[in-house]
Every structure is written in structure tokens, then in C-alpha cells.
Amino acid sequence: MLIFSNTCQYAIKACIVLANENEKTGIKAISEKIGTPAAFTSKILQQLTKKGLISSGKGKGGGFFMTEEQVEKLTIQDIYENFEGKEVLSSCLLGLKTCNSQNPCPIHHLAAEIRQKIIKMFQYKIKELKDFGTLMI
Questions:
Q1: Rounded to an integer, what distance in angstroms lies between the CA atom of residue 67 and that of residue 30?
Q2: 65-95: pLDDT as tens digits
Q3: CA of residue 54 relative to chain centroid, distance
């Protein structure tokens, strides 16, 4: 079951790497750890930086990093919504516009159970994930 696009997967992995590094880290090092091309990784990290989800420093000794506050607060949902949008969790899985609990589609009730589990998973913070495992590639 794929609920994350490749871009979102890489963004989550990059944030976990940054949370573990505790220092400014260059694109090359991050992309090697998560198994992505450096140019693609750079675009992902730039987008996360624009939204304030991670930080960056330019010039000599520069790179990407996460402040203590960012590590403490950043959730999977924050990253997901940055790349996938907010409506994904509230829209009908069959794409119907009128699907709701009063007028459900054929799989609405099944989807509701799954959606609740996904919402629970989305609440995990990067700080909680950084120690769960080390395998990235």
C-alpha cells in the first residue's frame, strides 16, 4: 500500500537524517543516506526550507539542519501536507464529490477505518521516528 509519493517518502527520510545529525549537513551526504539523486534531494529540501519545516545555512559550513524546535514539532502530517495537500485525507477514495457519512460511497465505511489509522500515524513526530530504525536505502 503506497500512501506516500516518492517525493514525500524522500522528504520524511531526509528529515529523519537531519534530526539524527544535529548539525548542518550537505546535500551530497543526505542524498547518499536516503538513496536519491542530489539534485532531486536539493529540490525537496528547498521546499521544506521555504515552509519553515527545516532550516538551511549558505556558504562555507552551510547545509541543511533542523533546530531543536523543528525536531520537537515536525510531524509526518506536516511533511505529507507540504507535498500532497490537505484534501487527500478528507476526499472520497473513489473520487465522488458527494461522499460523506450521510451519503456514503460503497467503500466509505471501510475507508473511514483506514483513514483513522493513517491520521494516528500522521501524528508521529520526527523526533519519535529518528530512533525507530536506521535502514534508509
A1: 17
A2: 999 999 999 999 999 999 988 776 778 878 8
A3: 11
* Strand pairing class (63-65; 55-57): antiparallel
Residue 65, φ and ψ in degrees, nearest 5: -160, 170
- Encode 94-105: b = buried (16+ Cβ within 10 Å), e = exposed: eeeeebeeeebb
pTM score > 0.90 for this model? no
Q: Which three cell numbers stand for residue 37?
A: 539523486
Cell numbers given for 125: 513526530
Three-class secondary structure of residue 25 per DSSP? strand
Structure-block grid coordinates of residue 102: 450521510
56 - beta bridge partners? 64
